[in-house]
Amino acid sequence: MGDPGMIVLFTVLLPVVGAGLVLLLRKNENAREAATLVTGVVTFAHVLALLRLVRAGETPRLDIVQIVPDVWLSFEVEPLGMVFALVAGFLWPITSLYAIGYMRGHQEENQTRFFFFFAIAIAGAMGVAFSGNLFTLFVFYEFLTFCTVPLVTHHQTEEAKKSGRIYLGILLTTSVGLQLVAIIWTWVLAGTLDFRTGGILAGTASTGVLSAILVLYVYGVGKAALMPFHRWLPAAMVAPTPVSALLHAVAVVKAGVFTVLKIAVYVFGIDLLQTLTTTTWLAWAAAATIILGSLVAFQKDNLKARLAYSTISQLSYIVLGAMLANEMGIIGGGMHIAMHAFGKITLFFAAGGIMVAAHEKKISRMHGLGRTMPITFGAFLIGSLSIIGLPPAGGAWSKWFLGMGTLEADQLGLLAVLMLSSLLGLYYLLEVPVKAFFFKPLEDAHHKDGIHESPTPSLIAICITAAATMGLFLWPDLFYELMQMVVAGGAQ
Amino acid sequence: MSQNLPALLVVVPMLLAPIAALLNRSGPAWVVAAGGSWFAFGAAVQLLRRVMTEGVIVYSLGGWAAPIGIEYRIDMVSAFVTVIVTSIAAVGVIYARVSVADEISEDRHALFYAAFLLNVCGLLGIAITGDVFNVFVFLEISSLSAYSMIALGHDRRALTAAFQYLIMGSVGATFIVIGIGLLFVMTGTLGMMDLAQRIPEVWASGEGDRTIAVAFTFLTVGVTLKLALFPLHLWLPNAYTYAPSAVTGYMAATSTKVMVYLLMRFFFTVFGEQFSFDRMQLDMVLMPLALVAILAMSLVAIYQTNVKRLLAFSSVAQIGYMVLGISLGSVLGVAAGIIHLFNHALMKGALFMAMGCVMYRIGSVRIEDMKGLGKAMPWTMAAFVGAGLSMIGVPLTVGFISKWYLVQAALAQGSWFVAAIVMVGSLMALIYIWKVIEVAYFERREDEDEIQEAPLSLLVPTWALVAASFWFGIDAGTTSQVAISAAETLLGVMP
Question: Where are the domains of chain A?
Fold first, then answer.
């Protein structure tokens, strides 16, 4: 299978090649989409090849170029990155399939640009997943920000322009203003930016300074959407739904929480985190975001906006897991990256399907739609269960471990927050299928008779992710195994 | 030949200038200017290589040794600065061909190229001479040629801008010559190395302390006026805005950089770190000014409606970064300042050149006139975005490298406050760059199809600088090494 380092490089570069093909084939829609799908599948195959190596205990590594003395652009595949890469790699071709149905069904303009930047963004996500040190992580983190701007502002309307400003403004303010300072500070203190089991910061400065750096990191990763730096995510919802689905429920936001987890485990180390005063504060800040996000989601009638706030709330589960600073918390957080991704992407797929087929964005106008779109709403129900954390959906497992983590950390209050949030989710998510299946259709609904299921490619995608969401309840072993390796120091 | 390279570096452009003027025709004059610039570029690279392997090059003019005669003294810092100046001149002269033909009337082309060569000669002279009076002479050469190049701008306001610059520049030059005179009175020498030896002696003897302090002040104010440190920057925005596009791109990337070099030369070599920082408490003056420059000038840049003017104010802010690095007084800080000389030259040169392309096609660089250019001139605007990323300091661009060292230097001294302001400055850069991008890519225009992309002779030099700003952001090993060893030379720290 060739040199492991090369496989890593290919995995990151393949989406870029795919983007190039999309440009070349722009004249022929079908060939263009075929290029996206084929590269997606090939990329995922490469991720699987790497998975085999990682499970065998290897950590493929590749140093590309030395930027300034002792600071390298380099890749390294370790179990935590593998979790993220698996999720993003698997969901990219699926989302592409979905996007074909959506973009055509919705008659969107500039589709070539859309598919081009979509592929580029995946390269960014892979780069984040496989980054071998903090510098590389930062490079791809910023790369991901910039290459998603054309997707967020796709419609080029006034609203898109405004959202673009919020999106760039918040993400860059946090990353440049806080995260970069923290990274350079780490460099000054530790003299290295490598990821090491047990961290690199222990013993380099006083607890006070390290606590401050932790705060800079956690708030500096704006993509984790910890309040008050969450506004960019609802703003990003002006994008076409496939973007919201893959990038703003999976790739971009997961890059954020993944960064938080990675920094917690490999820069600070669990032991050091436990001694820092700000760790507990940040856990409570995450808890506040969980509850506030759910409460705001409650009040949103626009389905995509509601899902966005639900995502903000769910992302903080992972931040919370990291800040619990124990093994269960880390395992739960890492698994939640995968579980939430599958659940939330199903929800977004369904929301987009409803938009294309029934032209409805508001929940209050979805009465009775379930009768004409049973598969779409059925999938929505499954996705909801996963987000709430109920069987038979994968979300149950990550919540279980997070709950165990709060007990281990002796934080009953945080356990209560998790429970409360599930209750809130029960209401704001299940309202949708309940209205769709059990309420009478509205008198003045648009296209009353013409409503049918989502476009076929989209429908296939929805079924796959819904099935995967349930599958993860029965077989969560892979992600559990990888996260076990993370806490057991499998990286070294 | 290679023995006399230091002299040739200055003499060749100087002698070619009158030839260009005498030829008096656009084409041949351009060939002469291009030849001179590229020769100087080759020579400068050669010299930098030699300094890197062999150490300081000392060249006595006419064979007269230093205190009696004039010596050229090329160490790491001066070699690096000559490479900056000549590389921009070499790219700029290619760019000038079409841009000048468009913006300056035909009968003045030859004179323009003569002035251009003289300017290159003056800036190079300042960078390599080891004699303070010689500095003044070259300063005047570069300034006078700069005034006349600015005055050639096709907007009539270029005349008042040049005049304003002339007045301010002359005040600065006068201050510098007063400072030099005072030093000569106290020490009886004009050689930099000689001065470096005698000033501490005179200072220690207690008698000349005040005079030397006054000389120091005159020199500082004079040089900071020429390099446009806030609040002595008032001449710069107009000069950059109304000068011909080719001149703005070239000058923004070179002349203020050489002045920053001169400032470092006076502070660290002539007066010495001890005198500058302990006796004169330079950091107490420079650091606040630099910080205010970064914040205030970035803020002013945000509110500009003319992109050249916007970039001019941004330049004043960026000069703040360089001076900030110097004011930190550590090897890392000074290295950050030096590396930013080069990095900023690349990105600002590229940005101004991109605006020159816009000027060439639509005859305006006002933001509201740039609607729809993202579609109409995709390569030009992509260059603007690429160089803009550098201004913001995105990783893998040169802007990031500068920031990396500057913030590191600040944090190493525990000045988190300074680090924070540097970051705020780059976020403000995001705002003013994004303002242009938003109009160019989000607004539509009617005549989108009628506007053509800029010609290749403008695009290629512009993209050369953009490419360099990425290249040296990814492989910053050499530049950072040069900058650090230059800083070590200046501070007298031997590695």
Answer: 4-487
Inspect the interface and report whether the beta carbons of B389 and A146 lie closer than 8 Å: yes
pLDDT at B182: 92
Q: Is the pLDDT of residue A105 over 90?
A: no
SS (H, E, C) chain A: CCCHHHHHHHHHHHHHHHHHHHHHCCCCHHHHHHHHHHHHHHHHHHHHHHHHHHHCCCCCEEEEEEEECCEEEEEECCHHHHHHHHHHHHHHHHHHHHHHHHHHHCCCCCHHHHHHHHHHHHHHHHHHHHECEHHHHHHHHHHHHHHHHHHHCCCCCHHHHHHHHHHHHHHHHHHHHHHHHHHHHHHHHHCCCECCCCCCCCCCCCHHHHHHHHHHHHHHCHHHCCCCCCCHHHHHHHCCHHHHHHHHHHHHHHHHHHHHHHHHHHHHCHHHHHHCHHHHHHHHHHHHHHHHHHHHHHHCCEHHHHHHHHHHHHHHHHHHHHHHCCHHHHHHHHHHHHHHHHHHHHHHHHHHHHHHHHCCCEHHHCCCHHHHCHHHHHHHHHHHHHHHCCCCCCHHHHHHHHHHHHHHCCCHHHHHHHHHHHHHHHHHHHHHHHHHHHCCCCCCCCCCCCCCCCCHHHHHHHHHHHHHHHHHHHCCHHHHHHHHHHHCCCCC
Which residues in chain A have Cβ-Cβ distances shorter than 8 Å to B434? 165, 168
**How many residue pairs bridge chain A and chain B with CB atoms within 8 Å of each other?**
74
The predicted model scores a pTM of: 0.91
A181 touches chain B (CB under 8 A): yes
Q: Does A193 touch chain B (CB under 8 A)?
A: no
Max Cα separation, chain B?
75
Confidence label for A492 from pLDDT (cuts 50, 70 and 90): very low
**Tens of pLDDT along B43-85?**
999 999 999 888 888 888 877 776 777 888 888 899 999 999 9
Chain B: residue whose CA lies nearest to A170: B427
Q: What percent of chain A has pLDDT over 90?
A: 44
pLDDT at A448 over 60: no
Q: Quote the tokens at residue B16.
A: 């070619």
Query: What ipTM was assigned to the predicted interfaces of this complex?
Result: 0.87
Interface test with A, best of B423, B438, B481 (most A CBs within 10 A): B423
Best mutation target among A140, A157, A170, A188 (most B Cβ atoms within 10 Å) is A188
Whether the ω angle into residue B495 lies within 30 degrees of 0, i.e. cis, is no
Q: Which of A173-187, A250-264, B195-209, B402-416 has the lowest mean pLDDT?
A: B195-209
pLDDT tens track for B336-346: 999 999 999 99
Q: Please give the average per-residue pLDDT across B264-292, as a whole number.
A: 87
